[in-house]
Structures are given as C-alpha cells and as structure tokens.
Amino acid sequence: MLCSCSGERIKFEEPQPQSPESLATRDFSASGFSSRIGDWDSKIEDAQVDEAESTLREALSLNYEEARALLGRLEYQKGNFDAALQVFQGIDIRSLSPRMSKAIFERTRRRKSRPKVNEMLHGVMSLHSVNLLLEAILLKSKSLEELGRFKEAARECTIILDTVESALPYGMPLENGENCRLQENFHKSIELLPKLWIKAGVLTEAMTAYRRILIKPWNLSPIRIAIIQKEFAVILLYGGVEASHLFDNTEEALLLLFILVRKVLNGEIEWESEIMDHLTFALSVSGNFETLAEHVEQALPGIYTRAERWYFLALCYSAAGKIEVAVSLLKKVVGSPEARNKPHFHSILLGAKLCSQDKVYAQEGIFFAQTLVNLVGSNQNRHFIGQAHKFLGICYGNAARTSISDSERRVYHKESLKSLNRAVEIDKGELDTVFSLGTESAFQRNLTVAFDSVMLYSSMMAGGSTKGWKLLSQILSAEQRFEDAEIIVDLAIDETEKIDQFSLLRLKAVLQVSQEQPKEAIETYRVLLGLIGAQREQANSFDAELVETKRLEMEAWQDLAKIYIDLESWPDVEICIDRAKSVGFYSPENWHATGMMLKAQERKREALVAFSVSLSIEPDYVPSIVSTAEVLITMGSKSLPIARSFLMNALRLEPTEHRVWMNLGLISKMEGSTMQAAEFFQAAHELMMSAPVLPF
After folding, report:
1. What span, in angstroms and rounded, lies between the C-alpha atoms of 330 and 344?
2. When comparing pLDDT for 552 and 6, which is higher?
3. Last residue of a domain, one of 271, 286, 301
4. Number of domains into which the chain is organized
5. 641 and 542 within one domain
C-alpha cells in the first residue's frame, strides 16, 4: 500500500531487519520518508489511521509511536488539525520522556567525547527517534494552538523543555550534525512556549517560561535571544495586575533592556526604536530620568538628529528637576544652524513651558514664546498658536514680579493680560489658559476678572479641580468673604484625594484664623498633622508626594507657631518651631518663625539674628526683610535709613505686600512727612483689603 501510494520503492539507510524495539535500539533517518510522505494526495480519514499506522510499521519497521508521529505530521501539513491531534494523542509521551532524556544525555555526551566513533548504545534511543518524537510534541502543541486550546498547548510544549532540560541541566552543548535538528526543534518549542501562556492569559507562567529560557545557554542566535529578551521585558512592563510586584518587575525589565542597549552599541544586534521606547517608559515610571539621559547620550550617531537628541535630553533633565540644564539644551536647539532652515517647534514650545514654571527664567521664557509666536504665524494649528500665547502671557507675568522698574513692571503686566486674553480667544476650550488668565488677574488684584475666569474654569472642569477650588477660595478671601471661602474649601475636601486634601485643610485653618477662630484652627491643624503622620507611614510612596507632604507638615507647624505667638503661649510656640525645624532645619520660614517669637518677646537683637539667618539662607525672603525693618524701626531714629533700605528692597521684590507700605508710612510719619505717610497708609489699606489669606 505504501509503495503504491508513493509511486516508488523506499530505500532505507539500514536495510537489515531489526528487532521490534527499533525506537530504542536503532538509528534511522525519517527525513527522506517525510519528504515523500508530504507528497501524498489522498487524505487519510479517521477510520484509516489504524490501517495506515500498521502499513507504516510493516514497511519501515517503525514502532507504534514513530508511525503515529509521521502520520500526525502529514495531517498537520495538510491543515487537518483535528485529525493530527487525534493521531498525536495516541502517543504516550510522558512514559517516553525519561527515555528521551536519557538518549539526549548519552548521545550528546558520547558525541562530545568521541566525535569520530559512531558506536551503538543498546537500550538507548537514537537522536533520529528523539527528534521525531520532539517534533510530534511540537506539532501537537501547534495543533492545539490552532484549535484555540492554548493552556493545553502550553502544557504540551512544556514537556519538551522539561525533557531537554533534565538531560542537559547546564544548557545545550555546541554540536553539529544530527544535533542540529534536535536543537532547531527545541528552539522552536521554547520560542513558542511563553507565547502560548500569554494567549492563555496566564502571565505568571509566561514569565516563568521566559526566565527558564534565558537562565541557561541554549545556543540561541543573538537575534533570537534579543527577541526573547525584548518580549519578556514587554510582559514585565505592561503585564498589568497579573504581573505583580511592580517595582521588582520594572527592575528586571530594566536589566533586560540595558543588556539589549549594550548589544546594540556593540553591534551584536541592529537598532530598534522599540527598545528605547520601552526603556524610556521603564525609567520614567521608576523615576530614573538622569539614567535615561545617559542612555540617550550613548545612542550611536545617526539614530537621532542633533535637535531630537537635545530635545530628548531636555525632557529627561526637566523631569529630573534640572530645569537649568534642560533650558540650556533647548537654547542649543533654537540656536543651531539646522533651526534656521527647519525650526524644531516642540523644543521651542517645551522651552517656553519650562520657563513659565519658574520666574527665574522669565526672560528666557519670553524669548522662547515670542520666537514660537513669530514662527507659527496664523497658518498653523490654532491650539499650537494658543499655547504659544499662553506661555508668553505667563512669562510676562513672571517677569513683572521680578522686575525692579515700575514702568517695566506695568508694561509686563499689560503684555501678560494681552497675551493671555489672545490665547483664550484662539483656544476657548483650553482649561489651563483660562486658569492662567484667572491667576494673573488675581495677581494684579483684578478680582472681578479673576473670579469670572475661575468660575468658567470650574464649569469647564465639570465640578472643578483642586487648584480651581483653591484659587476660588483665595479670591473670595481677598474680597473678605471668608465664610464663603471656607464653604468652598469644605466642598473641595469632599471631592479630592488625600494629598490634595492636605493643602485644602491648611487653607481652611488659615481662613479660620482670619475669622478669629483660633480654637477651630488648632483643631483643623491637629487633623491635618494626624493625616500627614498616617500618610508618612504608608509604604511605596513616590518621592514627589513625600516632598509635598513634608512641606505641608512644616507649614502646618509654622502656622501653629503664629497662632500660639498671638496667644502668648511660649512653650507651645517653641514646640511647634522645633517640630518644623525637625522637618527642614535650613528653611528660611522656620528661622523667620523663630525671629517672630523672639520679636514678640521683645528680644530684639536675638530676633535680628534669627532674621539674618533666614536671609542668609534665602536673601530675597520678603517676610524676613520686612520683619527686620520692623525691628529696626523700634530701635530709634538712627536705624530708620537702614529700615527704609530693607523696605525698598522688599517693595522691589513684592510690590503688593501691604506690610511694606504700612511700615514705609510709619517711617515717613516718624520723619515728619505726613502727606507721604498718608499715601503709604492708603496704599497699604487698599492692598490689605484685597490680599488673600495665602499668596496666589
């Protein structure tokens, strides 16, 4: 039957008759037969399996398992996965697995020690037989995969890894010849195994499979190893809730990605943008932005253009908090020769955004934003143009607050509102633009426009956000509507999360102090400090949250110290100041609080020392400058010029601080300039009546 189907007589490498134990005792080559058997045109039906198996066993002297392996391959090649699975299920592979492991161990060991001797090992399978059975398991697994039975397919594929691993516990030796087929089938199996577990949705088993594959040398090519490493890193990073232990998985993924980057640099594998994408994500979620910058700098020339590299580095350093380095890199992008022909808009926009966040870089921000406005013109995306005007307006506002010239400050204020209004007109749906307009209007004490803007912002946010609630309550406090402001804060506390509740609770306590309710304020601070203490004990807190929590804790102790100073409860004042210093000893606010306590106790010289320490830490800290001037005013007429000098410096830094104008009025009154003193007092009163309980 077999000869008639194939059309020719089949020749065997070993024509001599063999014992029935051919699977265990004989080397034979099925490769020639398998190439011919693939040419059969007739389809073997399920009822013919036994007959075909019997024919194969008689014609080729094959045993039961070998015949079924060949028939199963035939059905798989024809796409008859159900029929192939039925054939493969007749092979009891679990009982044969120990014999296969022994054969792999013995024959690879013998070939390694005596490569020129083809001796027969009685009672041990040949590698041909092992290869045939391993291929049968692999095809059975693939058939199950095609039928959607992924878990069963993965379990079958695991048998191959278990069999070979038990025979070669230290990895696969470097071999040629017949071992190549064994190695190729094994490589296909271990590449398939984790993918099957992923399709089955069992990510923990997939991760275990990847680790088993990578922990030992299996003679995989560098490209194959790199693909497996990248796939494993992807599962570790994006596996979701099933891939538990977030930080451990991220660290493991980072190690794999570092290895891949090193291989790229050494020329072992080609560059893939996906590797850097995954590395960027992993280092970003773990907060290692400077490490990411180092790897960007190590990227080979040609991968990024100069503008792209500088932009990428600026993103890294800005995320790491090194704004000065980031701004310097972005200046290089704008000033590069390439920028004259093809401006890098994203770098200019990032530069404007970074500079808008810190008034120290106000002038640089105006440069970036104005450059962007000039480049985009009126033909670009409206959102892009609106962002340029928004950052320009914010930077003008920051420049006004750092300007030492009144005329220059007025110009900056005017340009700030002009740009922000223009940004709102261009992109009316941009929330941050509306909020920025409200903030800048509040800074300029235009409370009506500020109130309208923040109300519009809240309506657009469908209920508001933490910063929107805070700004609204501050505006209400500037209008002396303390009760309404406290109601807003209470509503906000119910709508926000813990870390945002802390700042709102502090604002509530300050509002209670403004309403002369010290007992209620002390109770609010007690609740706040209790929540902060509970938050500190929680594990896995991010660094940004810890820094913010410590800052709020320190401010709460400082506020409590002010309350107890007014109550002249000196022991409580000292306790509060000590607690604040335990959080931040070198904080100018803490030394200022110490000075205020000493000033209230009429210990003027010691108070001056404390204020001096505060100013030595931060020379432009306005409260300490004003308090120093107040102490000097009480020390006699000879100290008035020095006090005036301090106050003029404070006025330059913070022209809306009513305490500055009040003390200038006192000096003028003491010097006999009553008209000038009246003007100063009038300005102080107007500013005080429009001052929020906390700075905008």
Report:
1. 10
2. 552
3. 286
4. 4
5. no
Q: How far apart are CA 103 and CA 23, in angstroms?
A: 11
Classify residue 462: in a domain, yes or no: no
User: DSSP string of 556-571?
Assistant: HHHHHHHHHHHTT-HH
Identify the pLDDT of residue 384.
83
Going by C-alpha positions, the residue among 82, 54, 57, 87 that lies closest to residue 69 is 87
**C-alpha distances in Å from residue 323, one per residue of 166, 306, 309:** 56, 20, 17
Looking at the structure, tell me whether residues 280 and 212 fall in a common domain: no
Which one-letter DSSP state was computed for residue 240? Answer: G
Domain that holds residue 49: 1-112+121-216
What is the per-residue pLDDT across 112-152, written as a single tens digit (0 to 9) for each?
A: 555 444 455 666 788 888 888 999 999 999 999 999 999 99
Rounded to 10 degrees, what is the CA torsion of 350, 352, 358, 363?
A: 140
519, 522, 523, 529: CA torsion to nearest 10: 180
Are residues 225 and 209 part of one domain? no
Rg (CA), the chain: 39
What's the whole-number average pLDDT of the chain? 84
Interatomic CA distance for residues 103 and 121, integer angstroms: 9
In order of 383, 422, 457, 670, the CA distances from 428 in angstroms are 9, 10, 11, 53
Task: Tell me: do 236 and 195 sit in the same domain.
Answer: no
Whole-number pLDDT of residue 619: 93
Nearest to 34 by CA among 65, 58, 10, 8: 10
Are 133 and 68 in contact by the 8 Å Cβ rule? The answer is no
Give the list of residues 6+ apart from residue 345 with CB closer than 8 angstroms, or none.
372, 375, 376, 384
Query: Quick one: 202 and 252 in the same domain?
Result: no
Our CA dihedral for 405, 411, 417, 418, rounded to 10 degrees, sits at -160
Closest to 638 in 3D by CA, of 596, 617, 667: 667
Q: Which of 186, 216, 246 is the last residue of a domain?
A: 216
**DSSP string of 597-624, one letter each residue:** HHHHTT-HHHHHHHHHHHHHH-TT-HHH
| Euclidean distance between CA atoms 328 and 313, whole angstroms | 11
Crossing angle of helices 498-514 and 466-478, in 10° steps, is 10
Distances (CA, A) of 327 to 284, 295, 298, 318, 346: 20, 20, 21, 8, 13
Taking CA atoms, 78 is separated from 43, 44, 150, 184, in Å, by 8, 10, 21, 22
Q: What DSSP state is assigned to residue 125?
A: -
Phi-psi region of 27 (alpha: psi -120 to 50; beta: other; left: phi over 0): beta
String of b and e for 564-599 (b: at least 16 CB within 10 Å)?
bbeeeeeebbeebbebbbebbeebbbbbbbbbbbbb
